[in-house]
TrEMBL record:
The protein's name in its UniProt record: Alcohol dehydrogenase-like C-terminal domain-containing protein
Any GO MF annotation of the entry: oxidoreductase activity, acting on the CH-OH group of donors, NAD or NADP as acceptor
One Pfam entry name: ADH_zinc_N
Lineage of origin: Eukaryota, Viridiplantae, Streptophyta, Embryophyta, Tracheophyta
UniProt-listed PANTHER family: ALDEHYDE REDUCTASE
Protein keywords: Metal-binding, Oxidoreductase, Zinc
Natural source organism: Coptis chinensis
Length: 167
């Protein structure tokens, strides 16, 4: 028997298997969902860029489309264009200057940020969730997403299944 404080328990929906719930709700899902909600990047009609089409990027595109956002996938790999548009529902593959309300950057290796910043509208948000081992030569560490508290993370994990229609 295990005794756990009820504040640390999460009710998983009955219609999702536990092996599928962990990545969606506790791993990649919450890593992209929480900053999208916190920074106001989940409002229908917004235009979101997603950098990188790996695990985090896939989830970011799927959530953004579920929220009713226009999604542009930004990648240096043209081979991912078909996957982004046909399989994940992205609206565009590359972006033009000053058109995005926000960007979720899921790339976990050092890469140039200035081209991404140029894609943002005034007051746009660049949220970095894929932190590389080595930071850039200029200090952008304050831009990395860090939740305000464990309580906030728990609240987000509880609201995620409801928001994406699993409960």
């Amino acid at each position: 028997m295990v005794v756990v404080d009820e504040h640390f328990l999460i009710n998983f929906p009955d219609n999702i298997p536990l092996d599928g719930a962990a990545p969606l709700l506790l791993c990649a899902g919450i890593v992209v969902y929480s900053p999208m909600k916190y920074f106001g990047l989940s409002k229908p009609g917004m235009h979101l860029g997603v950098v990188g089409l790996g695990g985090l990027g896939h989830v970011a595109v799927k959530f953004a489309k579920a929220f009713g956002l226009k999604v542009t996938v930004i990648s240096t790999s043209l081979s991912k264009k078909q996957e982004a548009i046909e399989h994940l529902g992205a609206d565009d593959f590359l972006a033009t200057i000053g058109t995005l309300d926000g960007i979720i950057d899921t790339v976990s290796v050092v890469h140039h940020l200035m081209p991404l910043i140029g894609l943002l509208k005034n007051h746009g948000k660049l949220v970095m969730v894929g932190a590389p081992e080595k930071l850039w030569s200029y200090q952008f560490s304050h831009c990395l997403w860090s939740p305000a508290s464990n309580v906030e993370v728990q609240d987000r994990v509880r609201e995620l299944p409801v928001e994406i229609g699993l409960m």
